[in-house]
Design a protein that fits this description.
OmpA-like_sf; OMP_bac; single chain; alpha/beta; OmpA-like; Histidine-containing Protein, Chain: A; 28 strands; hypothetical protein tt1634; cell outer membrane; 16 helices; Membrane protein
Length: 619
């Protein structure tokens, strides 16, 4: 009994030990398999495909041929993110860089006539002395700077061929940079002329060995063009470009586009070179070509800054003067224009009398004034333009007059007299000729004929004027239904709703305020005889004197804007008060914006000479 119990106990112990051993082995296999899968997945995800993992219990062996030390360390770091670093056994081998990296051979040769510089890394087997000997011969007694490095490695395929071609090219290019690699040869060079450029390019291409990759950029300096010329001729057959110069390719393209737009259909060429008289050369040419097209025929010749425009003899004098006047206004300052309209030739060979020179001013019902024809000098043209802008508003005057120094004496005085008479018209025209002034049109003034007669009798000697005007009662302003105070209140209501805004530190009225001026003009037309002072005010930023001048100019800009809208301004005055009359605190942006304002004040006998106060504005 006792022996049997011992036997069963021994058997039980053996079975328990065997079971524990079996379960332990199965657990170890599971742990190793799971560890290998986790670590291997992490390494593959990071691109470390060279690494091999071999678990051995809790220890994980890392083996494989790492491409470099950085890859080995990265693999260990990745494994350490999955398992404890103490479990990693590093048995990797790092591949030496000499086993995978070969040097990149290249040679750069710089030549400036007799000075040559050699830079780069070359194979030792080719021989430094071989390159230096050939470079020394090319320099022909000049300086050769050796900055070459050499190394004992295999000579790449194509190196010897490319090197020989590069040295041969260096010999015929005194100003060049030649880069040689086993794959290609790159040549950058400058020649003395376009002819030499073409010759060298042909020679280099012919000498290039078969299979060599050549990259070539050989240039020549632009030639000096003196004088810069342009000439076109237009007749019934079209436009012919006879000569053309430009300073850049972009300028050439712009000029040729204008020539094509004017009617040229042949192949067009234009020389590009140095010596342009001004950077605005192409703009002067383009404007002149457009003028020739508008004339419909003639010859245009330009030499540097001198422009000669000879029109066809079948063009009318008036049209000629208008086109030439527009061209004179459009040309850049440096250019001078000499325009000729040849006399017409009759069938018997005799010359037809030339058309009389004239000045024409045309006033449209909308108040637009066009000035055409001839003026005696640049100063007279400037004076006439200023006088017209004062009478009709600067925005309404289109001055396309041309200068003709051959006009008779007294011409500017007759022009000014005609413009003054035209200012009393609703619409009409003035024609000034050497022996006569003619004024025609329609006016709201019932005494227009007698008024013009008195004006012209004082300004023009003798009876050398013709008046053909009519009075139209429909143009007389209707009697106002508003008294002056009501007009003032309505104007102020407009300004309270929306102020007249100017560009910063400028007297230019912004586009958004043009509607405000329109509304004020309509109100004042209801009270044409009401005397108003247009007040200009600023904030406190800037000097007091500067602000006063700015406010004065802005008030005058409003006055001119009303004049441009055909408002009778006899009762209007403009005055700038600067920063002296604020209506808000200048310490805030909102306050400064409120202080920058235009205001209208009705002038009466009991009105004090003071600008509007804050209380007036609030009303």
């Amino acid at each position: 009994m006792h022996r049997t119990a011992l036997l069963f106990s021994a058997i039980g112990f053996i079975l328990v030990a065997a079971g524990s051993l079996f379960l332990g082995n199965r657990a170890a296999d599971y742990i190793e398999s799971a560890t290998q899968e986790q670590v291997d997945t992490a390494l593959r995800a990071s691109g470390q495909n060279w690494a091999t993992i071999r678990p051995d219990g809790l220890v994980v062996h890392l083996t494989g041929l790492a491409p470099d030390e950085a890859a080995r360390l990265q693999a260990i770091e990745i494994m350490g993110q999955v398992i404890d670093a103490s479990r990693i056994s590093d048995r990797t081998t790092v591949l030496q860089s000499s086993e995978i990296v070969e040097p990149r051979f290249s040679l750069e040769m710089l030549r400036n006539v007799d000075r040559i510089s050699l830079i780069g890394l070359i194979p030792e087997r080719v021989g430094r002395s071989f390159i230096l000997d050939r470079a020394t011969k090319i320099a022909d007694g000049g300086t050769v700077t050796d900055m070459l490095e050499s190394t004992e490695h295999r000579v790449p395929s194509g190196w010897a061929r490319n090197l020989d071609f590069g040295l041969s090219s260096l010999k015929q290019l005194p100003r060049s940079k030649i880069s040689v690699t086993p794959d290609s040869v790159r040549i950058t060079a400058v020649t003395e002329s376009h002819e030499e450029q073409r010759r060298v390019e042909k020679s280099v291409r012919e000498a290039k060995p078969e299979g060599l990759v050549l990259l070539m950029d050989i240039t020549a300096p632009r030639p000096v063009i003196s004088p810069f010329r342009f000439r076109v001729r237009m007749d019934e057959d079209g436009l012919e470009l006879q000569s053309c110069s430009a300073d850049t390719t972009a300028s050439k393209d712009r000029i040729l586009r204008a020539v094509r737009a004017a009617g040229a259909i042949d192949t067009l060429t234009c020389d590009v070179g140095l010596g342009v008289p001004t950077t605005e050369w192409d703009q002067a040419i383009i404007q002149s070509v457009r003028a020739l097209k508008e004339l419909g025929g003639g010859t245009l010749s330009v030499a540097d800054s001198d422009i000669s425009l000879v029109a066809s003899d079948n063009i009318g004098q008036s049209h000629f003067d208008t086109v030439v006047g527009s061209l004179e206004n459009a040309l850049p300052e440096l250019f001078s224009l000499h325009a000729i309209l040849p006399p017409k030739i009759l069938e018997d060979g005799a010359e037809k009398d030339a058309e009389l020179p004239e000045f024409i001013a045309t006033l449209s019902p909308e108040g637009q004034l066009q000035l055409r024809g001839r003026i005696q000098s640049a100063l007279a043209k400037q004076s006439v333009g200023a006088f017209a802008r004062a009478l009709f508003g600067s925005e309404n005057v289109d001055n396309r007059t041309r200068i003709d120094p051959e006009l008779p004496d007294g011409w500017p005085g007759r022009v000014l007299a005609g413009l003054e008479g035209l200012s009393d018209m609703h619409h009409g025209s003035v024609v000034v000729q050497p022996e006569k002034l003619t004024i025609r049109g329609i006016s709201a003034n019932p005494d227009i004929t007698s008024d013009l007669s008195g004006l012209l009798a004082q300004r023009i000697e003798g009876d050398k004027y013709t008046i053909s005007v009519k009075h139209d009662p429909k143009l007389i302003p209707k009697a106002s239904t508003l008294d002056h105070r009501q007009c003032e209140a309505q104007i102020r209501a407009v300004l309270i709703d929306q102020q007249i805004v100017f560009a910063p530190s400028s007297t230019t009225i912004e586009a958004e305020s043009q509607g405000v001026l329109d509304a004020i003009a309509d109100i004042i037309k209801e009270c044409p005889d009401a005397p108003f002072e247009i007040e200009g005010h600023t904030d406190s930023q800037g000097g007091a004197e500067m602000n006063r001048n700015l406010s004065q100019q802005r008030a005058e800009a409003v006055l001119n804007g009303l004049l441009a809208r055909r408002v009778l301004i006899g009762g209007l005055t403009a005055k700038g008060y600067g920063e002296d009359q604020p209506i808000a605190d200048n310490g805030s942006e909102e306050g400064r914006a409120a202080n920058r304002r235009i205001w209208f004040r009705l002038i009466t006998e009991d009105t004090p000479d003071a600008p509007a106060t804050e209380e007036e504005t609030d009303e």
